[in-house]
Amino acid sequence: AYFGDHAVLLGRQLKDSDRLVHCFEPDTDQATMLAGNGQLNALDNLRINKLGLWHESSHRLKLTGFDSFANVVQATGDESFETVTIDDYCRAQNRNIGLLMLDIEGSELPALQGATHVMEQDKPAIVFEVHREYVDWSVGLTKTPICTLLESAGYKLYAVRDFNTHQEMGDRPIELIPAESVY
């Protein structure tokens, strides 16, 4: 969830509904900023979990690398955090999911491997990042393990046209491109 760059926007959109935004941020500093940003925006619908999403619950991981580019490695000790699968979390919360937004620096696949029940039962919309630093898609985006997992679960895959800059969109629509056309 980082400091809430996506969660706060979604929380604002869902503010007057009974919908919640479940955030997962194992970095204490970022989770604290997320909570502060939720308060600044008068949001009571953010649920902040200091857990990492993974394909197994109760695993120990730690973040390595710089800030928003950090990825995970297995670990023990004080600097590690506990993991939870999306399936286990939803079962414990007794909630369905309508949207999964994943931007977790190469850990999107393990997170989705822990969401097979949710993908089958709830069929949530799934938005995720595939960054070439973490995922090799040199033989085609649709041949990556994450795309084959989603396609085998019945999902139709699209890419969002990425200007890869901080370019103002104005009135231009967001473009969705069939994944098989992405290079």
Question: Could you please describe the fold and organization of this structure?
Answer:
With 183 residues, the protein is α/β, with parallel strands linked by helices. The protein is 26% helix and 20% strand. It contains six helices and ten strands; from the N terminus they run H-E-H-E-E-E-E-E-H-E-H-H-E-H-E-E. The strands form four sheets. A four-stranded mixed sheet has the order 3-6-4-5. It has a two-stranded parallel ribbon with strand order 1-2. A hairpin with a 6-residue loop joins strand 4 (60-64) and strand 5. It is globular, with a radius of gyration of 17 Å. The mean pLDDT is 92.
**First-residue to last-residue Cα separation:** 28 Å
Q: Largest beta sheet: what is the strand line-up?
A: 3-6-4-5
Helix content: 25-40%
How much of the sequence is in beta strands?
A: 15-25%
The oligomeric status of these chains comes to single chain
Please report the number of helical segments. 6
SS-based class: alpha/beta
Note the overall shape: globular
Largest sheet: 4 strands, mixed
- C-alpha Rg (nearest Å): 17 Å
Number of strands: 10
Order of helices and strands: HEHEEEEEHEHHEHEE
The poorly predicted ranges are none
Average of per-residue pLDDT values: 92
